[in-house]
Amino acid sequence: xxxxxxxxxxxxxxxxxxxxxxxxxxxxxxxxxxxxxxxxxxxxxxxxxxxxxxxxxxxxxxxxxxxxxxxxxxxxxxxxxxxxxxxxxxxxxxxxxxxxxxxxxxxxxxxxxxxxxxxxxxxxxxxxxxxxxxxxxxxxxxxxxxxxxxxxxxxxxxxxxxxxxxxxxxxxxxxxx
Length: 177
Prior knowledge:
Blueprint lengths: L9 E3 L10 E9 L10 E2 L5 E11 L2 E15 L6 E16 L8 E4 L2 E3 L1 H11 L38 H7 L5
């Protein structure tokens, strides 16, 4: 007899149902089936392990879920396009309730169970760096020859600036090119 696979983000509420003020700690470690990607510069890759460390607390009409969601992220530096990665940790404090959903700003509870997956995905989506850098002083790629100026000097000639911009250049205190 084959056993049914269960979703690791699915939580049975047992003793939390109908009991106000009861708390329960949940630590879940699972892999995401698909990537979380708000843009092309950073993402939580498909198959990445996600750690959900939360406390569930019952209140009149629902369950509050508070704690952290964390995972590894990867992406490309916005200046030099080098591959980069890191750890994203997001604090969460969300409400789950029967009949809940996006229109209420809550997550649903169905049949005495709640599923943390949508909350996890939303939290990681919001926590990813939008324009990541490999380092704060990244020099980026030369726009003319494409050289990575972090690793090699650029051999391009300086561009002659139009003299109509001389007044602005003087205000900024930059020398003539």
